[in-house]
Amino acid sequence: MTATTATTGPRAGGDGVVAILGVGVMGETLLSGLLRAGRPTAGLLVGEKRAERAEELRERYGVTVVDNREAAARADTVVVVVKPQDMGELLAEIAPDLRAGQLVVSLAAGITTAFIESHLPDGVAVVRVMPNTPALVDEGMAAISRGSHCDEEHLAVAESLLAATGRVVRVPEKQQDAVTAISGSGPAYLFFVVEAMIEAGVHLGLPRTTATELVVQTVVGSAKLLRETGEHPTVLREQVTSPGGTTAAAIRELEDHKVRAAFLTAMEAARDRSRSLSGDQQ
Ligand SMILES: NC(=O)C1=CN([C@@H]2O[C@H](COP(=O)(O)OP(=O)(O)OC[C@H]3O[C@@H](n4cnc5c(N)ncnc54)[C@H](O)[C@@H]3O)[C@@H](O)[C@H]2O)C=CC1
Ligand SMILES: O=C(O)[C@@H]1CCC=N1
Q1: Which of 30, 83, 137, 278 most suits a substitution to test ligand 1, by most atoms within 8 Å of the C-beta?
Q2: Phi-psi region at 187: left, alpha or beta (left = phi > 0; alpha = psi -120 to 50)
Q3: N or C end of the chain: smaller count of CB under 10 Å?
Protein backbone atom coordinates (compact mmCIF):
# COMPACT_ATOMS: atom_id res chain seq x y z
CA MET A 1 0.00 0.00 0.00
CA THR A 2 1.21 3.51 -0.69
CA ALA A 3 1.57 6.26 1.86
CA THR A 4 -0.87 9.13 1.53
CA THR A 5 -0.44 12.58 2.99
CA ALA A 6 -2.76 13.06 5.93
CA THR A 7 -5.12 15.95 5.38
CA THR A 8 -7.62 15.18 8.11
CA GLY A 9 -7.44 13.26 11.31
CA PRO A 10 -6.49 13.48 14.93
CA ARG A 11 -4.52 16.37 16.30
CA ALA A 12 -1.73 16.02 18.84
CA GLY A 13 -3.10 16.49 22.35
CA GLY A 14 -5.76 13.86 21.73
CA ASP A 15 -8.64 16.22 21.16
CA GLY A 16 -10.33 14.33 18.33
CA VAL A 17 -13.13 11.77 18.68
CA VAL A 18 -11.82 8.43 19.92
CA ALA A 19 -13.65 5.15 19.30
CA ILE A 20 -12.79 2.04 21.30
CA LEU A 21 -13.87 -1.18 19.55
CA GLY A 22 -13.88 -4.27 21.80
CA VAL A 23 -14.36 -3.29 25.42
CA GLY A 24 -13.43 -6.29 27.55
CA VAL A 25 -10.67 -6.22 30.18
CA MET A 26 -8.16 -4.07 28.29
CA GLY A 27 -10.67 -1.91 26.44
CA GLU A 28 -12.40 -1.00 29.70
CA THR A 29 -9.03 -0.31 31.31
CA LEU A 30 -8.31 2.26 28.60
CA LEU A 31 -11.85 3.67 28.59
CA SER A 32 -11.94 4.20 32.36
CA GLY A 33 -8.43 5.69 32.30
CA LEU A 34 -9.38 8.24 29.64
CA LEU A 35 -12.44 9.25 31.67
CA ARG A 36 -10.39 9.52 34.90
CA ALA A 37 -7.93 11.71 33.01
CA GLY A 38 -10.79 14.11 32.24
CA ARG A 39 -11.66 13.23 28.64
CA PRO A 40 -15.35 14.14 28.13
CA THR A 41 -17.71 11.31 27.20
CA ALA A 42 -18.78 13.43 24.21
CA GLY A 43 -15.40 12.69 22.63
CA LEU A 44 -15.70 8.92 23.09
CA LEU A 45 -17.53 6.22 21.14
CA VAL A 46 -17.67 2.55 22.06
CA GLY A 47 -18.26 -0.49 19.85
CA GLU A 48 -18.83 -3.80 21.61
CA LYS A 49 -20.09 -7.06 20.13
CA ARG A 50 -21.86 -8.43 23.25
CA ALA A 51 -25.09 -6.47 23.76
CA GLU A 52 -25.25 -7.01 27.55
CA ARG A 53 -21.66 -5.82 27.92
CA ALA A 54 -22.41 -2.74 25.80
CA GLU A 55 -25.36 -1.94 28.06
CA GLU A 56 -23.19 -2.36 31.15
CA LEU A 57 -20.64 0.12 29.74
CA ARG A 58 -23.34 2.60 28.82
CA GLU A 59 -24.72 2.49 32.38
CA ARG A 60 -21.35 2.50 34.15
CA TYR A 61 -19.66 5.27 32.15
CA GLY A 62 -22.42 7.11 30.32
CA VAL A 63 -20.62 6.54 27.01
CA THR A 64 -22.22 6.37 23.58
CA VAL A 65 -22.33 2.84 22.19
CA VAL A 66 -22.67 2.58 18.42
CA ASP A 67 -21.98 -0.14 15.87
CA ASN A 68 -18.40 -0.59 14.74
CA ARG A 69 -18.94 0.90 11.30
CA GLU A 70 -20.54 4.08 12.64
CA ALA A 71 -17.76 4.40 15.21
CA ALA A 72 -15.11 4.00 12.49
CA ALA A 73 -16.79 6.60 10.29
CA ARG A 74 -17.19 9.19 13.06
CA ALA A 75 -13.92 8.84 14.95
CA ASP A 76 -10.56 10.48 14.29
CA THR A 77 -8.82 7.70 16.21
CA VAL A 78 -10.10 4.11 16.25
CA VAL A 79 -8.63 1.94 19.02
CA VAL A 80 -9.07 -1.78 18.36
CA VAL A 81 -8.97 -3.96 21.47
CA VAL A 82 -10.36 -7.34 20.41
CA LYS A 83 -8.55 -10.67 20.80
CA PRO A 84 -5.89 -11.23 18.14
CA GLN A 85 -8.01 -14.03 16.65
CA ASP A 86 -10.92 -11.57 16.11
CA MET A 87 -8.82 -8.81 14.56
CA GLY A 88 -9.10 -9.84 10.88
CA GLU A 89 -12.89 -9.92 11.05
CA LEU A 90 -13.13 -6.56 12.82
CA LEU A 91 -10.75 -4.83 10.38
CA ALA A 92 -12.67 -6.24 7.40
CA GLU A 93 -15.90 -4.87 8.91
CA ILE A 94 -14.65 -1.31 9.50
CA ALA A 95 -12.36 -0.92 6.46
CA PRO A 96 -15.11 0.48 4.16
CA ASP A 97 -15.73 3.32 6.66
CA LEU A 98 -12.12 4.34 7.21
CA ARG A 99 -10.31 7.00 5.20
CA ALA A 100 -6.78 8.31 4.75
CA GLY A 101 -5.62 10.44 7.67
CA GLN A 102 -7.52 8.54 10.34
CA LEU A 103 -5.52 6.71 12.97
CA VAL A 104 -6.03 3.08 13.99
CA VAL A 105 -4.39 2.12 17.28
CA SER A 106 -4.16 -1.61 17.99
CA LEU A 107 -3.65 -2.98 21.49
CA ALA A 108 -3.63 -6.62 20.34
CA ALA A 109 -0.74 -8.92 21.13
CA GLY A 110 1.19 -10.21 18.16
CA ILE A 111 -0.74 -8.42 15.44
CA THR A 112 1.70 -6.51 13.23
CA THR A 113 1.12 -3.08 11.73
CA ALA A 114 1.72 -4.69 8.30
CA PHE A 115 -1.16 -7.11 8.94
CA ILE A 116 -3.46 -4.26 9.99
CA GLU A 117 -2.42 -1.99 7.11
CA SER A 118 -3.07 -4.81 4.62
CA HIS A 119 -6.73 -4.80 5.72
CA LEU A 120 -7.25 -1.01 5.61
CA PRO A 121 -7.52 1.68 2.92
CA ASP A 122 -4.29 3.37 1.81
CA GLY A 123 -3.09 6.16 4.04
CA VAL A 124 -4.82 5.08 7.27
CA ALA A 125 -2.14 5.45 9.95
CA VAL A 126 -1.54 2.53 12.30
CA VAL A 127 0.11 2.46 15.71
CA ARG A 128 0.73 -0.82 17.56
CA VAL A 129 0.62 -0.70 21.35
CA MET A 130 1.39 -3.24 24.04
CA PRO A 131 -0.30 -2.04 27.26
CA ASN A 132 -0.77 -3.85 30.56
CA THR A 133 -3.50 -4.11 33.19
CA PRO A 134 -1.90 -1.96 35.95
CA ALA A 135 -3.22 0.84 33.70
CA LEU A 136 -6.43 0.31 35.67
CA VAL A 137 -4.73 2.07 38.61
CA ASP A 138 -2.81 4.54 36.41
CA GLU A 139 0.43 2.53 36.74
CA GLY A 140 0.35 1.04 33.26
CA MET A 141 3.36 0.39 31.05
CA ALA A 142 2.70 0.79 27.35
CA ALA A 143 5.13 0.43 24.46
CA ILE A 144 4.12 1.98 21.12
CA SER A 145 5.43 1.44 17.57
CA ARG A 146 4.62 3.26 14.36
CA GLY A 147 3.30 1.66 11.21
CA SER A 148 4.41 2.71 7.74
CA HIS A 149 1.89 5.53 7.10
CA CYS A 150 2.25 7.03 10.55
CA ASP A 151 3.71 10.46 11.17
CA GLU A 152 4.91 12.12 14.37
CA GLU A 153 1.49 13.64 15.01
CA HIS A 154 -0.22 10.23 14.92
CA LEU A 155 2.38 8.79 17.26
CA ALA A 156 1.87 11.73 19.64
CA VAL A 157 -1.90 11.12 19.66
CA ALA A 158 -1.40 7.43 20.53
CA GLU A 159 1.14 8.41 23.17
CA SER A 160 -1.24 10.88 24.78
CA LEU A 161 -4.04 8.27 24.87
CA LEU A 162 -1.86 5.74 26.66
CA ALA A 163 -0.23 8.34 28.91
CA ALA A 164 -3.65 8.76 30.55
CA THR A 165 -3.05 5.45 32.35
CA GLY A 166 0.69 5.29 33.01
CA ARG A 167 4.05 5.33 31.32
CA VAL A 168 4.66 5.11 27.58
CA VAL A 169 7.83 4.22 25.69
CA ARG A 170 8.43 4.16 21.95
CA VAL A 171 10.05 1.00 20.60
CA PRO A 172 10.82 -0.30 17.11
CA GLU A 173 8.13 -2.78 16.11
CA LYS A 174 10.63 -5.64 15.97
CA GLN A 175 10.86 -5.40 19.78
CA GLN A 176 7.10 -5.72 20.36
CA ASP A 177 7.08 -9.52 20.81
CA ALA A 178 9.71 -9.23 23.55
CA VAL A 179 7.83 -6.30 25.12
CA THR A 180 4.66 -8.42 25.15
CA ALA A 181 6.55 -11.19 26.95
CA ILE A 182 7.94 -8.79 29.57
CA SER A 183 5.46 -6.02 30.41
CA GLY A 184 2.30 -7.16 28.59
CA SER A 185 2.14 -10.56 30.27
CA GLY A 186 4.39 -9.47 33.16
CA PRO A 187 1.65 -8.66 35.70
CA ALA A 188 0.47 -12.28 35.48
CA TYR A 189 3.95 -13.61 36.42
CA LEU A 190 4.06 -11.31 39.42
CA PHE A 191 0.54 -12.31 40.53
CA PHE A 192 1.67 -15.94 40.16
CA VAL A 193 4.60 -15.25 42.51
CA VAL A 194 2.24 -13.48 44.92
CA GLU A 195 -0.13 -16.48 44.89
CA ALA A 196 2.79 -18.85 45.54
CA MET A 197 4.12 -16.75 48.44
CA ILE A 198 0.68 -16.48 50.08
CA GLU A 199 0.23 -20.24 49.78
CA ALA A 200 3.68 -20.76 51.29
CA GLY A 201 2.73 -18.49 54.21
CA VAL A 202 -0.33 -20.64 54.85
CA HIS A 203 1.86 -23.76 54.75
CA LEU A 204 4.11 -22.12 57.34
CA GLY A 205 1.08 -21.70 59.63
CA LEU A 206 0.06 -18.07 59.02
CA PRO A 207 -3.63 -17.17 58.73
CA ARG A 208 -4.42 -16.52 55.03
CA THR A 209 -5.38 -12.90 55.69
CA THR A 210 -2.09 -12.25 57.47
CA ALA A 211 -0.10 -13.98 54.71
CA THR A 212 -1.92 -11.95 52.06
CA GLU A 213 -1.29 -8.62 53.81
CA LEU A 214 2.40 -9.46 54.33
CA VAL A 215 2.93 -10.47 50.70
CA VAL A 216 0.98 -7.64 49.05
CA GLN A 217 2.70 -4.94 51.11
CA THR A 218 6.09 -6.58 50.52
CA VAL A 219 5.51 -6.50 46.75
CA VAL A 220 4.27 -2.89 46.77
CA GLY A 221 7.11 -1.77 49.04
CA SER A 222 9.75 -3.57 46.97
CA ALA A 223 8.40 -2.05 43.73
CA LYS A 224 8.50 1.42 45.30
CA LEU A 225 12.04 0.81 46.56
CA LEU A 226 13.16 -0.16 43.05
CA ARG A 227 11.59 2.91 41.48
CA GLU A 228 12.51 5.47 44.13
CA THR A 229 16.13 4.44 44.76
CA GLY A 230 16.91 3.60 41.13
CA GLU A 231 19.23 0.90 42.50
CA HIS A 232 19.95 -2.25 40.51
CA PRO A 233 17.80 -5.16 41.79
CA THR A 234 20.94 -7.15 42.55
CA VAL A 235 22.07 -4.44 44.99
CA LEU A 236 18.65 -4.38 46.66
CA ARG A 237 18.63 -8.18 46.91
CA GLU A 238 22.13 -8.20 48.42
CA GLN A 239 21.00 -5.67 51.05
CA VAL A 240 18.40 -8.20 52.22
CA THR A 241 20.73 -11.19 52.10
CA SER A 242 22.75 -11.52 55.32
CA PRO A 243 25.71 -13.90 55.10
CA GLY A 244 24.59 -17.33 56.29
CA GLY A 245 21.10 -15.95 56.96
CA THR A 246 17.50 -16.75 56.07
CA THR A 247 17.39 -15.05 52.66
CA ALA A 248 20.55 -16.84 51.50
CA ALA A 249 18.92 -20.14 52.46
CA ALA A 250 15.81 -19.29 50.42
CA ILE A 251 17.67 -17.98 47.34
CA ARG A 252 19.80 -21.14 47.32
CA GLU A 253 16.56 -23.16 46.95
CA LEU A 254 15.26 -20.89 44.16
CA GLU A 255 18.56 -21.33 42.27
CA ASP A 256 18.54 -25.12 42.88
CA HIS A 257 15.01 -25.23 41.41
CA LYS A 258 16.19 -23.22 38.40
CA VAL A 259 13.63 -20.44 38.91
CA ARG A 260 15.82 -17.94 37.04
CA ALA A 261 16.10 -20.29 34.06
CA ALA A 262 12.35 -20.95 34.23
CA PHE A 263 11.67 -17.19 33.92
CA LEU A 264 13.86 -17.06 30.83
CA THR A 265 12.17 -19.99 29.10
CA ALA A 266 8.72 -18.74 30.13
CA MET A 267 9.35 -15.36 28.52
CA GLU A 268 10.82 -16.98 25.41
CA ALA A 269 7.56 -18.97 25.16
CA ALA A 270 5.50 -15.76 25.49
CA ARG A 271 7.62 -14.02 22.84
CA ASP A 272 7.26 -16.98 20.47
CA ARG A 273 3.49 -17.09 21.00
CA SER A 274 3.30 -13.36 20.26
CA ARG A 275 5.27 -13.94 17.03
CA SER A 276 2.86 -16.63 15.89
CA LEU A 277 -0.39 -14.72 16.58
CA SER A 278 -0.37 -12.72 13.33
CA GLY A 279 0.19 -16.00 11.46
CA ASP A 280 -2.90 -17.52 13.14
CA GLN A 281 -4.92 -14.87 11.30
CA GLN A 282 -3.80 -15.68 7.77
N1 LIG B 1 -5.73 -8.53 29.17
C2 LIG B 1 -4.48 -8.09 29.14
O3 LIG B 1 -3.73 -8.11 30.14
C4 LIG B 1 -3.91 -7.55 27.88
C5 LIG B 1 -4.57 -7.66 26.68
N6 LIG B 1 -4.00 -7.16 25.53
C7 LIG B 1 -4.68 -7.31 24.26
O8 LIG B 1 -5.94 -6.68 24.33
C9 LIG B 1 -6.85 -7.34 23.48
C10 LIG B 1 -8.14 -7.62 24.23
O11 LIG B 1 -7.85 -8.46 25.32
P12 LIG B 1 -8.83 -8.56 26.56
O13 LIG B 1 -9.42 -7.23 26.83
O14 LIG B 1 -8.08 -9.27 27.60
O15 LIG B 1 -9.96 -9.52 25.93
P16 LIG B 1 -11.52 -9.57 26.29
O17 LIG B 1 -12.01 -10.86 25.73
O18 LIG B 1 -11.72 -9.27 27.73
O19 LIG B 1 -12.12 -8.35 25.44
C20 LIG B 1 -12.35 -8.40 24.07
C21 LIG B 1 -13.68 -7.72 23.82
O22 LIG B 1 -13.87 -7.57 22.42
C23 LIG B 1 -15.25 -7.82 22.12
N24 LIG B 1 -15.34 -8.12 20.69
C25 LIG B 1 -14.93 -9.23 20.02
N26 LIG B 1 -15.14 -9.09 18.69
C27 LIG B 1 -15.66 -7.85 18.53
C28 LIG B 1 -16.08 -7.10 17.40
N29 LIG B 1 -15.98 -7.59 16.15
N30 LIG B 1 -16.56 -5.86 17.60
C31 LIG B 1 -16.67 -5.34 18.84
N32 LIG B 1 -16.29 -5.99 19.95
C33 LIG B 1 -15.80 -7.23 19.79
C34 LIG B 1 -15.62 -8.96 23.04
O35 LIG B 1 -17.01 -9.08 23.19
C36 LIG B 1 -14.88 -8.54 24.31
O37 LIG B 1 -15.69 -7.72 25.14
C38 LIG B 1 -6.17 -8.62 22.98
O39 LIG B 1 -5.81 -8.46 21.64
C40 LIG B 1 -4.97 -8.75 23.88
O41 LIG B 1 -3.86 -9.32 23.20
C42 LIG B 1 -2.80 -6.51 25.55
C43 LIG B 1 -2.12 -6.38 26.70
C44 LIG B 1 -2.60 -6.87 27.95
O1 LIG C 1 -2.06 -13.22 27.27
C2 LIG C 1 -2.19 -12.48 26.29
O3 LIG C 1 -2.15 -12.95 25.13
C4 LIG C 1 -2.40 -11.00 26.49
C5 LIG C 1 -1.31 -10.20 25.83
C6 LIG C 1 -0.44 -9.70 26.93
C7 LIG C 1 -1.22 -9.99 28.13
N8 LIG C 1 -2.30 -10.65 27.87
Answers
A1: 83
A2: alpha
A3: C
